[in-house]
Design a protein that fits this description.
alpha+beta, 15 strands, three-stranded antiparallel sheet, Double-stranded beta-helix, about 350 residues, 9 helices
């Protein structure tokens, strides 16, 4: 299927959702064409439940502005990380809309732990929670949370390591039983900034939660989000590290890692991350993935950080979180939170 003269859309191999977009000709020319008429690409993105993979976008490495220009097609605002509380070492030197994910100084972000055996019966990559940890959606600890992220491979790891897993919250919601849909329809999750002593692991270890500034307070988010563009319902929740296990993980349910809220979260996350709902992204240099945080979750996988360097760039698009957030000030801005 043609998106335009430069872009061709195909099903994403091996996945039940998502699309593969191949660019013919120069990347900068393709970006210019999309800026003139972005609607076909946006339609393809939402038709594919919010996941597009664009290989061979190597020009972005030398022209990081192209990544920002592509990002602007998807929403009115691309986050400028120098205007937030992001560590400066994790912000691109010349393009401040780019967040750097890397495992070499000055960023030095370590990969997740390697899952312990047993692996899946056929020897394939384990993806399902709780064997696979780290499932989340970007910045769910903020209100309003972001809409869309673009993730670009500058220096990926060798195949078989450092993959990114994406799970489809729309298909996962559709596959819930009627009883479970009714149970979660008006439920709210409590999301929190990681590293504050409120994760499942921290609570189980008996750590004392850190004091939170007003702009770091836990935020309530609907477990079922109605997409503002497609009107489709999707599951919206994270797991151990980005949910609040002191007051939550759910409003109105028994808190803590051994309460009925935890039991429900485990049940939902096991369902959400079944292999039938998951795409495994094996990265090649120049790959660009565009994903919808309003309806997808993702997880990073282990790689040998001593033997391999990894550099990825991410942009974050905001502006259309849905009616539930209309008129809200931004929770993560200190002045707005204090007011």
């Amino acid at each position: 299927m043609k998106i335009n003269d430069s872009l061709d859309l195909q099903p994403l191999p091996g996945a039940t959702f998502g699309g593969l977009v191949r660019v013919s000709g120069a990347v900068d020319a393709a970006v210019e064409a999309l800026e003139a008429d972005p609607e076909p690409l946006l339609r393809a993105f939402y038709d594919c439940d919010g996941l597009l993979v664009l290989p061979n976008m190597h020009a972005i490495t030398g022209r990081p502005d192209l990544l920002v220009r592509l990002s602007r097609l998807f929403g009115p605002e691309v986050e400028d990380y120098r205007r937030t509380l992001t560590e400066r070492t994790m912000v691109h030197d010349t393009v401040s809309e780019i967040f750097i994910v890397a495992n070499r100084p000055p960023v030095n972000r370590a990969p997740p732990a390697r899952p312990e055996p047993p692996y899946t019966e056929d020897g394939s990559l384990p993806v399902q929670f709780p064997h696979r940890r780290g499932w989340h959606t970007d910045q769910s600890f903020r209100r309003p949370p972001p809409d869309i992220s673009l993730f670009y491979a500058v220096v990926p790891t060798p195949k078989g390591q450092g993959q990114t897993l994406y799970a489809d919250g729309i298909a996962a919601y559709d596959a819930l039983s009627p009883a479970m849909k009714e149970r979660v329809e008006r439920l709210e999750g409590i999301h929190v900034l990681p590293g504050k002593g409120r994760s499942e692991q921290a609570v189980r270890a008996g750590e004392t939660p850190e004091p939170l500034l007003p702009h770091q307070r836990p935020q309530r988010q609907p477990v079922v989000r109605v997409h503002p563009v497609t009107d489709k319902r999707a599951l919206y929740l994270c797991e151990a590290g980005q949910m609040d296990w002191v007051e939550g993980p759910f409003v109105g349910m028994q808190p803590g890692p051994d309460g009925d809220g935890a039991a429900l979260l485990y049940e939902l996350m096991r369902h959400f991350t079944q292999p039938r709902f998951v795409h495994v992204q094996e990265w090649t240099a120049g790959d660009l993935v565009i994903y919808d945080n309003r309806s997808l979750i993702h997880a990073a996988t282990w790689f040998d950080a001593e033997a391999n360097g990894r550099v990825m760039w991410r942009t974050t698009v905001r502006g259309n979180p849905g009616d539930a957030y209309t008129g809200e000030s931004r929770s993560w801005i200190p002045e707005a939170a204090a007011g």
